[in-house]
Write a structure and sequence with these properties.
Layout lengths: L6 H5 L14 E2 L10 H14 L8 H21 L6 E4 L2 H15 L5 E5 L8 H4 L7 E5 L10 H7 L4 E7 L11 H9 L4 E5 L11 H4 L3 E5 L9 E5 L1 H6 L12 H4 L7 H6 L1 H14 L7 H25 L5 E2 L11 E5 L4 H9 L3 E2 L1 E3 L4 H6 L8 E5 L6 H14 L1
Parallel strand pairs: 1-11, 3-4, 3-5, 5-6, 6-7
Antiparallel strand pairs: 2-8, 7-8, 9-10, 10-13, 12-13
C-alpha cells in the first residue's frame, strides 16, 4: 500500500519513537493523548530555560515570555481560521466547560432550555446538565441505539424558541462518526441557540476550520493534538463579551481573562507554538505548504493517510462474528478511533493485548451515558483502539495479529 504521507518522515518529528522502552510497541491509545512533537518540546525547554518567570513585566526576559505566549494565540488562530480574540487557553477542556457552565448559570433563567447529547464525553455534558438546578430544562438528544449515531431529525424534534444552547461532539471518543457540525449549527442557529462543540476527539485528525463550521464555541485538548496538557476554547468574541465574567473583577475588560479564571502554565501556552511548527513541517512533508490554506490542505492529506490505514483493520473486524464495532464499520465519515464490544470486558482485552506489545485501553472513557444507552455494560465497557497519521502500516498489522490471538 502506498500512503500519501512518508511515515518515517512524519515519525522523525516524535522523540517517543526513538525511546528504547517503546521499541516494538504499537501505540493505539492516541485518543487518550498523542505523542508530543519535538517542536513542542523545544519550545517548552526554551521557555523554562530562558524565562521561567512572570510574563508581561517591565524587564526584557519577562517581555519576551509574554511575546511567546501572544504568538501562540496568534498562530493557533491562523491554523484554526478564526480571530485571535477567539482563542482562550485554559488548564483542560473539562475545566473550560466547567467555566462555561458557571457563566451560563448566570446568563440563563428558569424556563430556558438546553440540548445535550448522550454521545458526549461527560466533560461536554455534565457541566451543562447542572443548569437544571436553576430551573433550566435539559433536553437530551439521544443516539440511535443501533448505529450509535445522532439523527438530525431527532434534534429538530427537540428544538423550539426556548432552547438557548445546543452542546454536541464533533465526533464521539467511542463512536468515531464525524457529526455534520456545520449543518447542526445551522439548525441550532435557526432558533437563536448557542452551539458548543466538543472537538477533542476530532482535532487530532483534522484541524477544524472554525469560520467555515459556523460554531459559536469549539473546544479541544492540545495534549491530543501533539502538544502540552491544556484545553483550547475558541469562543466567538461577541459571545465572549456577553458571557458573564468568570475571572477576577478587575480583569473583566480583558477578553482573554474573562473565561480563564485560573491561568494555565505560561510555558505550556508558549509551547503551543510548537503545535503549529509541527503542522508547518507536516505541510512540507505533504507538499501542501504552498496551498492558499496549508492547514486545511494538510488536514485532507492526514485524512487520506488515516483512511488508508483504517481500512484493513475495519475489514478484519467486519469479518468476525464475535465483535460489535461501535459506530460506522467503514472508513467513510469516521476517524480512526475504533471501539469494539466483545464477550470479554474491554479492560481485560487491553491487558491481553499488552502481552503482545499493543498499547490500547478498555472501559467507558467518560462516555458513561453512551455506554449505558447502548447497553454495553458500564463495568464491561469496550476495547478502544485509536491511532493517528503517524501510525505505521506495520503497527496496524501487529494489532490485527494480536487481536487474532486475544479475541
Amino acid at each position: 500500500m502506498t500512503l500519501p504521507l512518508d511515515t518515517e518522515a512524519v515519525r522523525a518529528n516524535f522523540p517517543a519513537f526513538k525511546q528504547a522502552n517503546l521499541q516494538g510497541w504499537g501505540f493505539f491509545e492516541n485518543a487518550g493523548g498523542a505523542y508530543m512533537a519535538k517542536q513542542v518540546i523545544e519550545h517548552y525547554n526554551h521557555y523554562y530555560t530562558s524565562h521561567k518567570l512572570q510574563p508581561y513585566g517591565a524587564y526584557p526576559a519577562s517581555q519576551e515570555a509574554g511575546k511567546e505566549m501572544d504568538l501562540a494565540h496568534e498562530r493557533l488562530a491562523k491554523a484554526l481560521n478564526c480571530s485571535v480574540d477567539a482563542i482562550h487557553i485554559g488548564p483542560s477542556t473539562t475545566a473550560n466547560t466547567y467555566t462555561l457552565g458557571k457563566a451560563l448559570e448566570e446568563m440563563l433563567s428558569a424556563g430556558d432550555a438546553i440540548i445535550v447529547t448522550n454521545q458526549c464525553h461527560e466533560a461536554n455534558t455534565g457541566a451543562f446538565r447542572k443548569l437544571a438546578k436553576i430551573g433550566v430544562e435539559v433536553r437530551e438528544w439521544q443516539v440511535n441505539t443501533q448505529t450509535a449515531e445522532l439523527d438530525l431529525d431527532e434534534l429538530a424534534n427537540l428544538l423550539d424558541d426556548k432552547v438557548k444552547l445546543v452542546a454536541f461532539p464533533h465526533c464521539s471518543n467511542i463512536v468515531g462518526h464525524i457529526n455534520p457540525v456545520k449543518k447542526i449549527c445551522e439548525i441550532a442557529h435557526s432558533v437563536g441557540a448557542i452551539t458548543v462543540v466538543d472537538g477533542v476527539a476530532y482535532a487530532p485528525h483534522s484541524l477544524p476550520d472554525i469560520t467555515d463550521l459556523g460554531v459559536d464555541i469549539y473546544l479541544f485538548s492540545t495534549y491530543k493534538t501533539y502538544g502540552p496538557h491544556q484545553g483550547v476554547m475558541v469562543v466567538d468574541p461577541d459571545l465572549a463579551w456577553k458571557l458573564p465574567n468568570q475571572g477576577h473583577f478587575f480583569n473583566k475588560d480583558i477578553l482573554r481573562k474573562r473565561l480563564v479564571p485560573a491561568g494555565p502554565d505560561h510555558a505550556q501556552i508558549a509551547a503551543c507554538n510548537g503545535i503549529v511548527d509541527y503542522f508547518d513541517e507536516l505541510a512540507k512533508i505533504a507538499g501542501t505548504q504552498g496551498a492558499s490554506d496549508p492547514y486545511r490542505a494538510t488536514s485532507l492529506i492526514m485524512r487520506e493517510q488515516e483512511t488508508a490505514l483504517i481500512e484493513p483493520l475495519l475489514a478484519y473486524l467486519r469479518g468476525r462474528n464475535d465483535v460489535r464495532i461501535i459506530g460506522p464499520s467503514t472508513a467513510e465519515d469516521r476517524v480512526p478511533t475504533i471501539a469494539i464490544h466483545c464477550q470479554k470486558p474491554g479492560q481485560e482485552l487491553a491487558e491481553e493485548l499488552a502481552k503482545h506489545k499493543i498499547m490500547a485501553a478498555g472501559g467507558h472513557f467518560y462516555a458513561y451515558r453512551l455506554i449505558d444507552a447502548l447497553d454495553l455494560g458500564i463495568d464491561h465497557g469496550v476495547l478502544r483502539m485509536s491511532f493517528v497519521h503517524y501510525t505505521s502500516q506495520s503497527e496496524i498489522e501487529q494489532l490485527i495479529n494480536a487481536l487474532d490471538k486475544v479475541l
